[in-house]
């Protein structure tokens, strides 16, 4: 029975259910099986062309794996993307080859299956040899290549797509989006699974296993696993990490050991029995939901694996707790794993930095990159990026800048734009999981487009409490608007609460208004956070002091940040290098500033008193706070302030006159004790 007769959603549901109940068995190596049937002179012929020229060979390979015990067989399409077939001059036959391959696999399953033992066809979608994260190929070119392939696989009757042997997360995104679009255009529901090939815990492009899991989490996969690789070395550690960070069932399809070159061919010498024992051990140790074989594995390997699997019980694995995560190409950051708030640097922004704007006007992208990376060094956990300039092509500027930054930044990116074309072109350049800044309900059509892009590219999203009536001012208005956005994003677009960041809006205390904006914002933060603990909150903290002199700005920014954290703030967009720990300021100013921000009603007299106290503290109106800080830097203070590079320099300087143990006892240990005290007393809320 073809899946179109039964219904793709039923097949997917059946497969998903089985993955929760038993260890499913995949097949082995198509390439190895083909190689054993043909002489060496045929090696330069596309294996995938055999779906048309020698269908009986492919049909017999499927039959042998099914009779060996496979629950799932893969189509002979690993190298059947349009880009891969182009190497053989076969790109014009992409659809035909993929459809034929899927039909052959479906015929084999129909001949060997019965109702008591359902079998499934996985549409194999392999890499192309190009790494988009390194700029070797465009996202759109990859997408179009995969889309033709997936359409052919759908027409032939696959049950799901298997994006396999991946080394680049941006390539995986292109394949997943192409697969989803193809299925929608064909009016079908066909899920996808992903299998990657890390070495020593990382892909060749640099992504670690936590990042693989974080980036792919929004794509609703059937399972996530590993295949190919160099034998079994390191698989225990890799699978342990996968289970720790992934929310999907885990899979493994390794090679038959480490390959050797014999007579110009790769040879895998691991016996079926040894292979089966090792895979079964890993399956039992790491609660795998699916196992199979890759290069060098034959029907004998699968038959031996089936025998071993029959002797173990399926063990359910505990699912990790959902959490808010963002990711760059290289690493993942958990927004709530450390002491809040999560700091997003704001200096790589043409709307907030005159210097950055001038660099873009000069098209000095190298210096723009340095501006962004300097915020990493200053402690920013993510980078807000904006390239809006009148008269320039924002989509071109933003995508070019982010494409380069994607290859260099270790921290995740926050894309700040309202231009839909610029947003989508930039999302196509990001290998990790970015944050989009932002969406609101002033224009619901625009909002829906942004929700769609967020879900499509697996991003997270900042949500501003703005609707058709304008910016929400009172705590009640803010929470009502936030609830509308939350319902629309989660219920209609399927965006996880953990991927939503609600901005309750911050207005300056210097404004003449009937409300104390700080009080209303803090109240809204707590109310919304209590209702939706899974969702995140975010603020542009420095707005609170806009229009004031430098010293009171520093106090109010740091103080408001602390108060916001106490009321449920998770993240803040702020210049990380300009945040000053509260213990630097006189206690009376902190008390006065706190009363100003927490007053339920605006109090111009209290604001005037606070500003006067600031003038008195600095000794002259408008003087910067630098005069209140020690002129001669010390190792003790540098450690407390979290100035890593300066701490190293000062420690090396002290080594010229002191012994190391004296430096530890006199400066380092006392500084760390003071850090602990300040954290305990809520005087050090900033990232340390």
Describe the structure.
This protein is an alpha/beta fold. Among the domains are: 24-309, TIM Barrel, CATH 3.20.20; 635-680, no CATH class. Helices cover 46% and strands 12% of the residues. Helix 5 packs across helix 7 (94-112). The model is unreliable at 1-7 and 620-631 (pLDDT under 50).
Main sheet summary: 8 strands, parallel
Count of helical segments? 26
**Share of helical residues:** 40-55%
CATH architecture tag of the domain at 24-309: Alpha-Beta Barrel
Averaged pLDDT, please? 90
Main sheet: strand order: 1-10-7-6-5-4-3-2
CATH superfamily of the domain at 24-309: Homocysteine-binding-like domain
The fraction of residues in strands falls at 5-15%
For the terminal residues, how far apart are their CA atoms?
A: 61 Å
What class, by secondary structure content?
Answer: alpha/beta
Number of strands: 22
Unreliable parts:
1-7, 620-631
Shape: elongated
Give the SSE layout.
Elements: H1 3-6, H2 8-19, E1 24-25, H3 30-37, H4 50-53, H5 55-68, E2 72-74, H6 82-86, H7 94-112, E3 120-125, H8 139-156, E4 160-166, H9 169-185, E5 192-196, H10 209-216, E6 224-228, H11 235-245, E7 250-254, E8 260-262, E9 265-267, H12 272-285, E10 290-291, H13 299-309, E11 325-327, E12 332-334, E13 342-345, H14 354-361, H15 365-377, E14 382-385, H16 394-406, E15 413-416, H17 420-427, E16 435-439, H18 444-456, E17 460-464, E18 466-467, E19 470-471, H19 475-492, E20 500-503, H20 517-531, E21 536-539, H21 550-566, E22 571-573, H22 587-598, H23 604-618, H24 635-641, H25 644-654, H26 660-680
Parallel strand pairs: 1-10, 2-3, 3-4, 4-5, 5-6, 6-7, 7-10, 13-14, 13-22, 14-15, 15-16, 16-17, 17-20, 20-21, 21-22
Antiparallel strand pairs: 8-9, 11-12, 18-19
Helix pairs in contact: 5-7, 5-13, 7-8, 8-9, 10-11, 12-13, 16-17, 19-20, 21-22, 22-23, 24-25, 24-26
């Amino acid at each position: 029975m073809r899946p179109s007769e039964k219904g793709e959603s039923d097949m997917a549901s059946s497969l998903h259910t089985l993955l929760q109940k038993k260890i499913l068995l995949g097949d082995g190596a198509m390439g190895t099986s083909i190689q054993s049937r043909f002489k060496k002179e045929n090696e330069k012929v596309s294996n995938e062309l055999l779906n048309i020229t020698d269908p009986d060979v492919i049909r017999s390979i499927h039959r042998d794996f099914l009779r060996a015990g496979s629950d799932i067989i893969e189509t002979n399409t690993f190298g059947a993307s349009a880009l891969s077939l182009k190497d053989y001059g076969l790109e014009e036959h992409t659809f035909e080859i993929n459809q034929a391959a899927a039909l052959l696999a479906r015929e084999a399953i129909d001949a060997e299956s019965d109702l008591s033992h359902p079998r499934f066809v996985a549409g194999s979608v392999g890499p192309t040899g190009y790494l988009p994260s390194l700029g070797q190929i465009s996202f759109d070119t990859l997408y179009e290549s995969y889309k033709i392939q997936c359409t052919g696989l759908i027409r032939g009757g696959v049950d799901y797509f298997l994006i396999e042997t991946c080394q680049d997360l941006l390539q995986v995104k292109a394949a997943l989006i192409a697969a989803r679009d193809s299925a929608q255009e064909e009016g079908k529901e066909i899920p996808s699974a992903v299998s990657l090939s890390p070495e020593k815990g990382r892909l060749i492009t640099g992504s670690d296993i936590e990042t693989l899991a974080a980036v792919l989490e929004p794509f609703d996969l059937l399972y996530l696993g590993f295949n190919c690789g160099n034998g079994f070395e390191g698989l225990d550690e890799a699978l342990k990490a996968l289970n720790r960070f992934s929310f999907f069932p885990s899979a493994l399809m390794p090679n038959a050991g480490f390959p050797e070159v014999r007579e110009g061919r790769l040879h895998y010498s691991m016996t079926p029995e040894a292979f089966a024992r090792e895979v079964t051990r890993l399956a039992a140790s790491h609660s795998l939901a699916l196992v199979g074989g890759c290069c060098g594995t034959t029907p004998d390997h699968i038959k031996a694996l089936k025998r071993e699997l029959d002797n173990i019980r399926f063990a359910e694995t505990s699912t990790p707790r959902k959490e808010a995560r963002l990711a760059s190409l290289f690493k993942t950051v958990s927004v709530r794993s450390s002491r809040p708030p999560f700091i997003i640097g704001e200096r790589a922004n043409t709307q907030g930095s005159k210097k950055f704007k001038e660099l873009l006007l000069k098209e000095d992208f190298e210096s723009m990159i340095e501006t962004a990376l300097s915020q990493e060094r200053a402690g920013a956990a993510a980078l807000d990026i904006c390239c809006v300039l009148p008269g320039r092509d924002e989509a071109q500027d933003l995508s070019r800048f982010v494409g380069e930054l994607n290859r260099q930044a270790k921290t995740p990116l926050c894309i700040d734009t309202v231009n839909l074309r610029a947003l989508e072109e930039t999302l196509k350049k990001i290998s990790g999981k970015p944050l989009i800044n932002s969406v609101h309900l002033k224009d619901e059509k625009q909002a829906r487009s942004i929700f769609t892009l967020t879900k499509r590219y697996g991003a997270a999203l900042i949500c501003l409490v703005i609707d058709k009536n304008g910016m929400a001012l009172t705590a009640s208005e803010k929470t009502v608007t936030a609830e509308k956005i939350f319902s629309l994003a989660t219920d209609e677009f399927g965006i996880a609460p953990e991927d939503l960041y609600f901005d309750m809006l911050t207005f300056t205390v210097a404004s003449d208004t009937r409300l104390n904006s700080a009080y209303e914002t803090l109240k809204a933060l707590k109310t919304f956070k209590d209702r939706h603990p899974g969702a995140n909150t975010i603020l542009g903290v420095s707005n609170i002091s806009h229009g004031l002199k430098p010293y009171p700005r520093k106090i109010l920014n740091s103080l408001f940040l602390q108060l916001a954290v106490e009321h449920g703030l998770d993240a803040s967009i702020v210049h990380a290098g300009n945040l000053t720990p509260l213990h630097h300021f006189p206690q009376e100013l902190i008390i006065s500033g706190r009363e100003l921000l927490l007053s339920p009603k605006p109090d111009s007299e209290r604001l005037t008193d606070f500003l006067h106290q600031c003038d008195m503290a600095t000794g002259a109106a408008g003087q910067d706070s630098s005069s209140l800080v020690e002129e001669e830097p010390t190792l003790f203070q540098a450690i407390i302030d979290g100035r890593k590079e300066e701490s190293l320099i000062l420690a090396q300087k002290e080594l010229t006159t002191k012994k190391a143990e004296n430096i530890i006892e006199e400066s380092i240990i006392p500084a760390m004790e003071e850090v602990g005290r300040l954290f305990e007393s809520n005087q050090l809320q900033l990232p340390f």
